[in-house]
Amino acid sequence: MRNFFKTSAYLHAGVSSLLRVLNAASVDGTHVVRPVPFTCVASSAEMPINVNINTTSNLPQSASADSSFNPIFAYVLAAVDQRGHVFAFDIPKNKFWLVARSGVSAVCMTFNSVRRREIILGLSDNSIHCYNIDTNLLVARLPAYHKSAPLAISVHPTLPLAISNSSTESILWDTEKWERKRVLMGAGPGVQQASFSKTGDAIVTAFNDGSILIWDTFTVNLRWKISLDRFAANLEQQPPGHSLSGNDKNSRTHFHVYQSRTSYFSTSANDEYLVYGGIDSSVTVWNLIEKRLVHEIVIPDFKKRIISQIEFLGNSNVIAVLSSAGQLVLIDVEKAKMLGQFKGKHLFRSFSVSHDGSVMTVVLMDVKYSLRLIRVDHMFRAGKEKREEREDEDEGETAEDLHQRSPPSSPIKKVKVQPPQTKTFYEMIEAKENTTLLNRRKLLKYLKHYGSYPDDYRHVLYFLNYCLRLTAALCNRTMIWRFLLKLPENRDAYEILLEKGIHSSVKDFRKKFPLKSDRIAKSMERTLSCLAHWSPIFEDLDYLPGMVFPIVKLFVNDMFSGFEVIMTILLNWCQKWWEYYPNPPIECLAIIEDLLKLHDPQLLSHFVHLQITSQVYAWPLLQTLLTEILSKSEWLRVWDHLVTNPPAFLYYIVASYLIQLRVSLLDATKLQDIAFTLSRVNGGVSVDKLVVAAYRMHSETPDSASPVTFFEAFKPVLRGQYPIFNAYPEFIVNYQSKMKERIRTDEIEYLRRRKLADEVSKLSDELKKDKQAWESADWKMNEMVETWWESMMGAEDSHNERLARLDAQEKEQRVRALKRIAEARKSFVQLQANNTHAHALNLAKAVGSNRNTLETQTDLETLDTQFKRVENEWMARKEEMLAARQELSKLDQTRAERFVWNAKRVGVPPETANSMGTAAMDATDEYISHAFQTERLRAARSEGLRDPSLSPTRIKPRAWSPALLGQSRHRRMEVDASEYNSDGTGVSPVRSELSVNVDRYSEGSPTRSSNFLTATSALDEPPTPAPVNLIYLSSLQVIKCKAAIAWAPKQPLSVEDIEVAPPKAGEVRIKVVASGVCHTDAYTLSGADSEGVFPVIMGHEGGGIVESVGEGVTSVVPGDHVIPLYIPECRTCKFCTSGKTNLCSIVRETQGAGLMPDRTSRFTCKGQPIFHYMGTSTFSEYTVCLEISVAKVTPEAPLDKVCLLGCGITTGYGAALKTAQVTPGSTVAIFGLGGVGLSVVQGCRTAGATRIIAVDLNPAKFDLARKMGATEFVNPSELNGVTIQQHLVSITDGGVDYSFECIGNVNVMRSALECTHKGWGVSVIIGVAGAGQEISTRPFQLVTGRTWKGSAFGGYKGRTELPGLVDDYLTHKLDIDSFVTHTLKLDEINRGFDLMHSGESIRAVVIF
Description:
Layout: E1 17-22, E2 24-26, E3 33-35, E4 38-43, E5 59-61, E6 76-81, E7 85-90, E8 95-101, E9 106-111, E10 118-123, E11 128-132, E12 137-142, E13 152-155, E14 161-165, E15 170-174, E16 179-184, E17 191-196, E18 202-207, E19 211-216, E20 222-227, E21 265-267, E22 273-279, E23 282-287, E24 292-298, E25 307-312, E26 318-323, E27 328-332, E28 337-343, E29 348-353, E30 359-364, E31 370-375, H1 376-380, E32 401-404, E33 414-416, H2 425-430, H3 440-450, H4 460-467, H5 477-485, H6 491-499, H7 509-512, H8 518-534, H9 544-554, H10 559-572, H11 586-599, H12 601-609, H13 614-617, H14 619-623, H15 632-644, H16 649-660, H17 662-667, H18 671-679, H19 687-700, H20 730-792, H21 796-876, H22 878-905, H23 910-942, H24 962-965, E34 970-974, E35 995-997, E36 1012-1018, E37 1039-1046, E38 1054-1060, E39 1067-1076, H25 1079-1085, E40 1096-1097, E41 1101-1109, E42 1121-1124, H26 1134-1138, H27 1148-1152, E43 1163-1165, E44 1168-1170, E45 1182-1186, E46 1190-1193, H28 1199-1202, H29 1208-1219, E47 1227-1231, H30 1235-1247, E48 1251-1255, H31 1262-1268, E49 1272-1274, ...
Parallel strand pairs: 5-33, 47-48, 47-50, 48-49, 50-51, 51-52, 53-54
Antiparallel strand pairs: 1-31, 2-3, 4-6, 6-7, 7-8, 9-10, 10-11, 11-12, 13-14, 14-15, 15-16, 17-18, 18-19, 19-20, 21-22, 22-23, 23-24, 25-26, 26-27, 27-28, 28-32, 29-30, 30-31, 34-36, 35-36, 37-38, 37-40, 38-43, 39-41, 39-45, 39-54, 41-42, 42-46, 43-44
Pfam family, one: ADH_N
InterPro entries: ADH-like_C, ADH-like_N, ADH_3, ADH_Zn_CS, GroES-like_sf, NAD(P)-bd_dom_sf, Rab-GAP-TBC_dom, Rab-GAP_TBC_sf
Family: Belongs to the zinc-containing alcohol dehydrogenase family. Class-III subfamily.
């Protein structure tokens, strides 16, 4: 992105704009430019002169055409655009720079009045940022305490205070510590605006109920209350198109005010006038000194438009008023006179006035990306001069002009003002024209009265009560010191010293002085480096860090001022210290001896008697500036007096300190005792008495012995450039510098020679070893030659014997060679045999696979044949089934007639009896139809078929095994009359006598009895489906059972008797077999869950058997093994159909409320409804779930094991395989080794990760993690101060590829992200944090390529994909057994929570 700015030349005639700023951005790096609107502007307070804009006053003349600098532009302009880019403009230098990119559009902005190089922004995300325009760094980021975006920010002119305003509240901030001090909400409809007056003495607050309150800033007492009730009549006719607020029934009057303005009121520079513009298009003026209403000015040109902004111009009584329509006028509030109106092609959106009111910066309404600077003082000199219209260079438009509404007056006298330099803080204080001005005499008087200056602005009230309110600029100690020391503020010279970098003498500072605060250590390094660059004498003063440390710590927020304070102290209070360097200042120490001789000769005689010089008892105090013997508060109090008095007063303080310790010093007889007494921090000396004694000594010392006559008076540091400091023996310092350089060169040469000597020594050792080896070999060679010579000179027999021995050896070698060849051939043959065998095995496997395929195909063909035979026989027996149905209908008719006849006998009216008989027959038909249809579905599924009415396609071929074909063909079947089709045809092969049995539940017993039609059938081939009793009367009744109920948070579960209602449409009632105790249950029970409701039946890791189903349920039937799901799968909502997530929104609202979709509960206990939990509630013997919230699994899987797939194992396993998609060979870190963490370990091992690092505080879990596949283990409590992310980054060469947080701790979540590798690291959050907790990290962590994502239920779709995990368990691909560490009964369920909290169990399973 690029920003284009164009500046026009200064215009000295007319009222044309002086500067145009265009803000634009290139689109995708092309030449296409897209304008970017500005949102707000602000001007700094660094104005060199104060210009009074008045219709009768003499105004400064503009700079000449050839002038290179115009004093009215000696300020900085800041602007923010819609993208959040913050720009600063230095107009005299004709340059701009980008300060920051906040990323959020700003709503308001102002400059910090205390630290003038800082800007404070109110952003549209309700937060407030502060930036330094010199360093382009973020100084502070204040939290978003505002409920809406801040509309305006007001800063105190001298104190570190600021007020931010929004449409709902105003907040008072401490800009020194950047913390919130107070929130002003207001009564009724809220606050319009709250801001400081121009002098800072008062806080003016306007409320929406029509009242204005003026408070004292320091005492917070109410000065004056202004009521706007009398102006309410002006609002009877409201302008169209504007919303009103404040019409509260509880308010005293129905007062209407307008919202969303930049400002409602403004105060004049001397706090004389208050101007309010919150009432339609009129301006109301009050005199704050006389507390009276002065004017009510109506602006006809606004045509009942509201006023959006109102500001005073400089120190004048002229205000600039901007309407909502973009009209800008100038009014003299003292004379109630319209001075003029800005007119041109453009309207105005907002404006900012410079500190002296000479220049106005405006943002146009229709060209928001353009800023215009207008000379306001030119407009008042227009008078009778003819206004010239100037053609704009870029757009060909007429520049804005001021249309005078007042009659022409005589020309105003022009006064040419010389451009002065920017004033220092001291000059600005001294330049005020006031007889009550603060000076050094008043400060000394205050200091003697109170003992010290105020630490900060909180204590300034006492200071102001003593020195009057005009001294408010000096609100704390640092500013008073700046004033007393007359700091020059040579910022350019200071930056030159800073640019030289860290001095070589300071590079080892942190090793010598390991400070805890990195900020203070860095400030010390910079300060000492600047001093060393300033003068060579300060390169090697070992006591210099102790001298400057307290001052650096005091000015740590303004090191520029701190450095100049140190320089001023060195030049004045350290006079003549280094004239005899490197020896102590003998003449300075002699002064202290003279003072002791005059005021305590006994103590001096004692020192002389012990032969102890002032270099021992006085120089250590001087060279550290008393920092080693005084505490922080005492040192500050003493130096308050030192900076207020002449530099010679330091010697009175030192002499006074020695006299205060005279008792201890006179008692000491050894040098060590005196040194120890003087080295203690405040060895029993009262600072107040010390200062009083120093003043008394100063007054009693004659001029002949006074240090004042020896030392020069205080001289401030010169402005512009720092002075050259050479008050020391230059030849000694230069010699030391040369010696240091020589020593450094000698050290380098020594190290080089040492390295060379080591290499020579190493080479010599190697030569010695080679020589020893050569000598040993030579001796052996000589011995062998002698032995050979003796053998040659021996007898013939010895020679023959040797030849024979050689022949034997040769034969032996040949034999060994032949053996090696034979072994090699044998190995080759064996290898060939192994390869042949392996190839044969592969062929056998292929043949076996083809054979299995052939057998499977044969089974399918056989099955198809059998089904065809069954279908043919069923069709052949169609007539028989029709006859059976007719017989059944006749039997029902007979029963109905008997029922009606008996009803009539007992006195039932005939109509009622007939209707009861008809209803009984209809109910019987419907019941029998439902029963047989359900049985047919169940029987088909038990045999591996999808539906008997469909083609006989197998789901599991094992259902038609040869054993099944050989079973008895006599079966007991359930028959339903609904087996017949609607056209009267039937497919049931039943041919039997029908009978009805009705059993009922015994009270309180869950044992089921059946009410079904039975039939006995002797069938030939093929076999009929196996019978299963599906339709029970219990399906229509309430079941009583046991359940563990959580009556309230943080209380143990209570096992109670409950009633479970029958399932409704789309619901399933399940007999729970087993349920795991999960951390999520404990999380809700702890009360931290924001969706936790009580009383509730918890549990969501369960497994059970379908007991009954509701209307419309087709995916499961009674008897199916299922796992309840806390994330349903409806397969119809946008989440399920997106293919991007496993989340489902179909029942999210009611499930989170603990209810079924009809907003009722199926559980009751003692007559009270009990809430469901996560749609599962598995801590009950029976539970009711939605059909879409159960996953059907194979009956072969043990439910007491696979129940854990309902949450923990699936969540962790899927987080690795589906969410993170861990790649083979990657490095992984898992935080937390609970059930979920261990499942992540399994998933990473399955994915092929090579390094799996397990992180946990419990080492006992490492063995199980190693079994699951972990390769490394880290205990964060054993890292000795190193953070876990730092440790992981160091051992993994930049970070892990994947990390998983399985705890639910927001701090661990940040560590898990920051330990991943830059560029591609992925961190997955699995753990659930407490309600209201937030995660945080530096945005740079994500900008550099890391990914932060979450995982719920491992990304698995429960109904579709969970059965596959069960199959993985049955084939031993997934380990579940190791997770089950404890099995409990229902009444032991609370023990399961205790085991989980203590870390003794991974999963405790409750068996029902």
